[in-house]
Design a protein that fits this description.
The complex is a heterodimer of chains A (54) and B (450).
Chain A: H1 3-12, H2 19-42
Chain B: H1 3-11, H2 17-35, E1 38-41, H3 43-55, E2 66-70, H4 97-104, E3 108-113, E4 125-126, E5 130-131, E6 133-134, E7 137-141, H5 147-154, E8 160-165, H6 171-177, E9 180-183, E10 203-208, H7 211-221, E11 235-239, H8 249-264, E12 268-272, H9 280-302, H10 309-318, H11 323-344, E13 349-353, H12 367-387, E14 391-399, E15 402-409, H13 415-428, H14 437-448
Parallel strand pairs in B: 2-3, 2-8, 11-12, 11-13
Antiparallel strand pairs in B: 1-3, 4-5, 6-7, 8-10, 9-10, 9-14, 13-15, 14-15
Helix pairs in contact in B: 2-3, 5-6, 7-13, 9-10, 9-11, 9-12
Classes of the chains: A mainly alpha (54), B alpha/beta (450).
Chain lengths: 54, 450
């Protein structure tokens, strides 16, 4: 996502973030979201969610 | 002095509650200007409570014991700032449940300890209340987010404190400051009256000198009994992966020597491999980021400029973690917990270094370096948070003159097993009794007199 896209999404939620803050967010997401996506591909289809308390 | 010993001396009449509380304030006055472990103190209230305790006929197990609590936990009539500007005027109407339980047992709360803003960071370098310093080296961080709680115990200001731990916030300052800290099983200690960070992962736990102190405090804090397994410690599983890779050599060496000490004490040590261990931090963050942002959403709209830059950045990041990522993390947590449980089942507990490094110096300004530091910590701490397992961090040696922590990790609601192994370790070592220089000097001054 670009800074403009992040800014637009933040404004939709009523938040007016600075470009400097959004640049940090963009850098974080560029590493974090692919890692989550990779994880999703590895999960077995029957992985259904959190376990109940022991 | 340990909680167990102080409580005994109070019970036996060797010391009065007023003397115990006064001694705590004397040490706070002498040392906290340099440490900044406290955000606020309750001197007048605590001394009144000590006088009332001295007259009270009913005496609980912590009768007259002075304690401090992290400033994210409500104490009736005191401000709970959570280390933030946003909550600077937030006076609590009633005690948090954890504080209420300790006070019912006779404890006297002397103050609120410094924390990373909203408990959302590992260094306790508050833009609003100042940085808390490590008693072992004042130019180094004490860890976080329960940094003030760790520093206060290490310097002997109070015999024990309460901290909170979401992704490592009790264990990080415990290891950096050389104290014993327990992150209980998630759900074991009620969190009502705590400023939350991440609902599904937040915990409240004790920080003290010994595992026996932590066990005593957990008994009073817990909503339910953990499952004690009486008998000798037979075997521990060694999480080899965390002894290798991005870990300072001196830290790894101290942790390995600690495992050898357990072996010499008759414990069988077995190397184990936990499935998906390296992926656990990403899963934990995929849960924590949106949960934290959800909590702060209204303040992000109205008070954005009142957050420190690092916490503001993390909270904004959580805004963009999609719901699908959160669901993926929920599914992955189940898979990881099941895999961990199968491997851990045969052991009394698991053992690993608490952290990959000793306390760093203040002043890390490069964002990339800061992120690598955080990720390094999370690699060691986040897996156990994710699955809700209890962890006791015990001092296990020194590297470059600074404390190193060892984690004893139990299965969920088997907190007593981890505490039992920690207590065994502290019977055969004395790392937990070492004191940092300021505490030593103050102790000597008090013994020698003016």
């Amino acid at each position: 996502m670009t800074i403009d896209e992040l800014r637009a999404q933040a404004r939709l939620r009523g938040i007016d973030a600075s470009d400097e803050d959004l640049e940090g967010v963009r850098e974080f997401l560029s590493v974090f979201l692919p890692a989550v996506e990779e994880l999703a591909q590895l999960l077995p289809p029957d992985a259904s969610g959190p376990e109940p308390l022991e | 002095m340990t909680v167990v010993e102080l409580a005994r001396r109070l019970r036996d009449g060797e010391l009065s509650p007023i003397e115990a509380v006064t001694a705590a304030f004397d040490r706070i006055q002498a040392l906290d200007e340099a440490l900044n472990a406290f955000i606020s103190v309750r001197e007048e209230e605590a001394l009144q409570e000590a006088e009332a305790a001295a007259r009270a006929p009913k005496r609980g197990p912590l009768w007259g014991v002075p304690l401090a609590v992290k400033d994210v936990l409500d104490v009736a009539g005191s401000v709970t700032t959570a280390g933030s500007r946003i909550l600077a005027g937030n006076v609590a109407g009633q005690d948090s449940e954890a504080v209420a339980r300790l006070r019912r047992a006779g404890a006297i709360v002397v103050g609120k300890t410094n924390t990373h803003e909203f408990a959302y960071g590992p260094t306790t370098t508050s833009a609003h209340y100042g940085r808390a310093c490590n008693p072992w080296a004042l130019d180094r961080v004490c860890g976080g987010s329960s940094g003030g709680s760790g520093a206060a115990v290490a310097a002997g200001l109070v015999p024990a404190t309460l901290g909170t731990d979401t992704a490592g916030s009790i264990r990080i300052p415990s290891a950096f400051c050389g104290v014993t800290g327990l992150r209980p099983s998630t759900g074991l200690v009620p969190t009502r009256g705590m400023v939350p960070l991440s609902w599904s992962v937040d915990t409240i736990g004790p920080m003290a000198t010994t595992a026996d102190d932590c066990a005593l405090l957990l008994d009073l804090l817990a909503a339910r009994k953990s499952r004690p397994e009486p008998g000798d410690v037979i075997s521990v599983g060694v999480v080899e992966r965390l002894f290798d890779g991005a870990i300072e050599p001196g830290v790894a060496a101290a942790a390995r020597t600690a495992v050898e000490a357990l072996g010499e004490a008759g414990v069988r040590t077995t190397s184990i491999v936990l499935p998906h261990l390296d992926r656990a931090p990403v899963v934990q963050q995929a849960l924590q980021f949106p949960e934290a942002t959800s909590i702060h959403l209204e303040w992000l709209r109205t008070r954005l400029g009142d957050y420190g830059a690092d916490v503001r950045g993390r909270l904004l990041a959580g805004l963009f973690v999609p719901a699908t990522a959160y669901v993926t993390a929920l599914r992955a947590r189940g898979v990881i917990a099941a895999g961990f449980r199968v491997v851990a089942e045969p052991f009394d507990c698991l053992v690993a270094p608490t952290l990959p490094s000793v306390a760093p110096e203040f002043g890390r300004s490069d964002p990339l370096e800061e992120n690598l530091f955080r990720q390094g910590l999370l690699r060691c701490t986040a897996p156990w948070s994710l699955v809700g397992w209890p962890v006791v961090s015990v001092p296990c040696g020194f590297a470059n003159g600074l404390p190193v922590g060892l984690s004893l990790i139990g299965r969920r609601f088997h907190d007593a097993d981890a505490l039992r192994v920690a207590a065994l370790f502290q019977r055969v070592t004395d790392w937990h009794l070492r004191q940092p220089p300021p505490a030593q000097e103050e102790s000597a001054a008090r013994i020698d007199g003016p």
